[in-house]
Design a protein that fits this description.
This protein is mainly alpha-helical and 313 residues long. It folds into two domains: 1-87 and 102-124, no CATH class; 165-312, Alpha Horseshoe (Serine Threonine Protein Phosphatase 5, Tetratricopeptide repeat). The protein is 72% helix and 0% strand. The protein is built from 19 helices and no strands. Helix 3 runs antiparallel to helix 4, helix 9 (139-153) packs parallel to helix 12 and helix 12 packs parallel to helix 14. The termini are far apart. This is Serine/threonine kinase-like domain-containing protein STKLD1. Keywords: ATP-binding, Kinase, Nucleotide-binding, Serine/threonine-protein kinase, Transferase. Its EC number is 2.7.11.1. It comes from Dryoscopus gambensis. It catalyses: L-seryl-[protein] + ATP = O-phospho-L-seryl-[protein] + ADP + H(+); L-threonyl-[protein] + ATP = O-phospho-L-threonyl-[protein] + ADP + H(+).
């Protein structure tokens, strides 16, 4: 009530946020803090020039959302809150340190389908792509932004396809830059999977995107989620074009078929990985030339192994 009575007075908003922050450690205050998110974001939007207030507001929102996720509470933030966060992103688009925290906040917010849809509606995708281009070496920003883009791309009403198409080369650049960073590579592979599933990869990108995904699998073979999502992304590409299937067979760094075999044997007890590999193979055999090559490399043997390992799946 104190904050709502004096939106235009920056000191009131700052003191209010600081006082709310003092309740973060008190578990019994959590239900009340959940109701304060709109007040905090409106204070940030009203005083758009106050970096200090934005930092404190963002820190408090991160605390509240972290507790919400720990307790399994999904916060479906409305379009007004999404709009406030977008204004904050645009105001501080050059501030790398603050954007690191802000992008983490956006990632946590986008875990809710409703919130992700509201972020898409207010038009945040071009801003995220701009941030990625500007701060490509920053692994924390890249991880968070790719995770947000994944959430937005899998949204049922995913808006203008041209906007999502423009995300493919940017996320590919992230993956290329951070191939050896397992966490970022995993996030980028997930985003590419969502985009390829939506048919956002253009004809000229089939081959280089497939090659890049194979590189990610080779560099991070032990990451089960990355392997699963990388294979699902490859399956989506192969479904769209034989070019992607041939790129897997004829990759300059080694046979994609051998890589598939190696990945299965490394994760033979992971049903999610096995299912993704089977889906990829199922897409590849739709092309006669590719199927003949798979036969010559004895893929039946691998399929028999998978069938024995998962007889009831």
């Amino acid at each position: 009530d104190f904050m709502q009575a004096s939106w235009d007075i920056e000191e009131v908003q700052a003191k209010g946020i600081q006082h709310l922050a003092s309740f973060v450690k008190d578990k019994s205050a959590f239900p009340c803090l959940l109701k304060c998110t709109e007040v905090i974001t409106r204070a940030m939007k009203t005083h758009i020039d106050s970096l200090e207030l934005h930092v404190e507001g963002c820190t408090l929102l991160l605390e509240i959302l972290s507790q919400a996720l720990e307790q399994g509470v999904m916060m479906a933030l409305d379009e007004c809150v999404a709009s406030c966060l977008l204004h904050t992103v645009r105001k501080h688009s050059e501030n790398e340190e603050f954007l690191s925290s802000l992008c983490t906040l956006l990632m946590m917010v986008s875990a809710s389908e409703v919130a992700a849809e509201n972020l898409r509606k207010v038009g945040i995708i071009p801003d995220l792509l701009s941030i990625l281009r500007r701060f490509l070496p920053n692994d924390k920003i890249c991880f968070s932004c790719c995770a947000v883009l994944w959430s937005l791309a899998v949204s049922e009403n995913n808006g203008d396809p041209a906007v999502l198409e423009s995300a493919v080369p940017v996320i590919s650049a992230v993956l290329q830059k951070h191939l050896q960073n397992r966490v970022v590579a995993e996030s980028a592979c997930s985003a590419l999977w969502a985009l390829s599933l939506r048919g956002c990869v253009t004809d000229s990108d089939y081959e280089p995107t497939a090659a890049l995904l194979l590189d990610a699998l080779r560099m991070n073979p032990e990451r089960a989620v990355l392997v699963k999502n990388g294979c699902l992304a490859l399956a989506s590409l192969v479904r769209l074009s034989e070019t992607a299937a041939l790129a897997i067979l004829l990759d300059s760094k080694g046979s994609g078929i051998e890589l598939i075999k190696d990945e299965y044997h490394l994760h033979f007890d992971e049903p999610g990985v096995a299912e993704a590999l089977c889906l990829l193979m199922n897409e590849m055999v739709q092309y006669d030339e590719v199927m003949l090559d798979m036969r010559s490399q004895k893929m039946e043997k691998l399929l028999s192994e998978i069938k024995l390992q998962f007889p009831f799946s």
